[in-house]
């Protein structure tokens, strides 16, 4: 019987788009998507579960259906210990469903890593819901990685939104595949990722470099993206360097020195290296920080310290459920 390293569950529209990318990049994984839209993911690697919430698309209804769906997911991934739940937060669907799915999978003994995508700052009506959703994900998961849509890429304002998403989804897919890459002898062990992600506030920065200054440029891009997401210095970081196979020891040293200089990181910086045939370098940095700018989108968090809004995820939920409303698309 085949055994898999990881199961990746994409929740909501953004989650569904990202899981499509990931399914082409990770060879030893199981892929599931939970959403309520009809479009079909390309390829045949992703099992799609469509939640039936069209008639009453409320947060409460989505949560109940998500709770039921988590039982279906559990059956699909019985032999897998590591689960990644990917969700774009801020809409109704994933902000409601993803914490429920993460929590029930964790209760079944899975090691759950959340990868949450935060809205652009201009999506004003979504910021509060996204941050509350993030808070729930932190409580539900063993660790959460936060990706800011605005900061993940140094995009030009002229870039069409769908292209920015496309590029970003490609990068998110690459990053997640590196987190579970067990073939590369210079890689970072996924246990390290879980450990760092469980430390509280983890943000991601990415930078790309080409040509002679590629190491410095890529490290500067990733570090500057991190700086924009927090007023605090980086405490500790995992740095994934992907690309140019002839990278030298000097380049790695440049990456670490540049990273430390810009992020003022005094703690450990661990570097994993993932060579390929590109003539460029991409640096993904996962950094642990004391606080992020996303915290400011949720002022209630400061007032209610420790007392949670609407966090009893199973309240009003009957455990005597009926799975017939859940449709798996083939
Ligand atoms: N990186 C990336 N972010 C996306 C994409 N689509 C949406 N987002 C972001 O993710 C957030 C949540 O959006 P959706 O995934 O569309 O929301 P949803 O969970 O499906 O919720 P509903 O709007 O209720 O359907 C948005 O605020 C966007 O910032 C995408 O393809 N890639
Ligand atoms: Mg949607």
Structure description:
Helix 8 packs parallel to helix 9. The chain is globular. It has two domains: 6-180, Tubulin/FtsZ, GTPase domain (Rossmann fold); 204-289, Tubulin/FtsZ, C-terminal domain (60s Ribosomal Protein L30, Chain: A), CATH 3.30.1330.20. The longest helix has 19 residues, at 161-179. Helices cover 40% and strands 24% of the residues. Residues 316-322 have low confidence and may be disordered. It has helices at residues 12-25, 59-76, 93-107, 124-140, 149-152, 161-179, 190-197, 214-229, 249-263, 300-304, and strands at 6-11, 29-35, 46-50, 82-88, 111-118, 143-148, 201-210, 236-244, 269-276, 280-289, 327-329. Strands 6-5-4-1-2-3-11 form a seven-stranded mixed β-sheet. Strands 7-10-8-9 form a four-stranded mixed β-sheet, sandwiched between helices. By secondary structure, it is an alpha/beta fold. Guanosine-5'-triphosphate (GTP) binds at residues 12-14, 17, 88, 90-94, 117, 119-120, 123, 126, 149, 165, 168-169.
């Amino acid at each position: 019987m085949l055994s898999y390293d990881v199961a990746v569950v994409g929740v909501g529209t953004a989650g569904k788009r990202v899981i499509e990318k990931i399914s082409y990049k990770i060879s030893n994984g199981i892929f599931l998507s939970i959403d309520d839209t009809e479009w079909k993911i390309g390829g045949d690697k992703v099992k799609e579960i469509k939640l039936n919430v069209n008639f009453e698309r409320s947060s409460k209804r989505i949560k109940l259906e998500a709770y039921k769906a988590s039982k279906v997911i559990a059956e699909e991934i019985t032999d897998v210990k590591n689960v990644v739940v990917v969700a774009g937060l801020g809409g109704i669907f994933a902000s409601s469903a993803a914490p429920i799915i993460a929590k029930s999978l964790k209760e079944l003994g899975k090691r759950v890593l959340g990868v949450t995508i935060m809205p652009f700052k201009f999506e004003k009506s979504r910021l509060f819901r996204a941050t509350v959703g993030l808070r729930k994900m932190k409580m539900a998961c063993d660790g959460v990685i936060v990706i800011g849509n605005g900061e993940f890429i140094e995009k030009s304002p002229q870039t069409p939104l769908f292209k920015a998403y496309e590029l970003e989804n490609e990068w998110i897919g690459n990053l997640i595949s590196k987190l579970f890459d067990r073939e590369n002898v210079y890689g970072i062990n996924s246990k390290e990722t879980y450990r760092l992600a469980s430390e509280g506030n983890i943000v991601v920065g990415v930078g790309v470099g080409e040509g002679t200054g590629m190491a410095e440029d890529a490290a500067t891009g990733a570090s500057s993206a991190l700086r924009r997401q927090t007023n605090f210095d980086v405490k500790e970081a995992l740095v994934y360097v992907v690309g140019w196979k002839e990278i030298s020891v000097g380049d790695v040293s440049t990456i670490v020195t540049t990273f430390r200089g810009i992020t003022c990181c005094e703690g450990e910086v661990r570097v994993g290296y993932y060579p390929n045939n590109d003539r460029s370098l991409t640096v993904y940095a996962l950094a642990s920080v004391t606080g992020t700018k996303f915290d400011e989108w949720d002022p209630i968090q400061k007032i209610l310290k420790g007392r949670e809004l609407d966090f009893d995820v199973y309240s009003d939920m009957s455990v005597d459920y009926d799975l017939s409303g859940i449709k798996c698309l083939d």
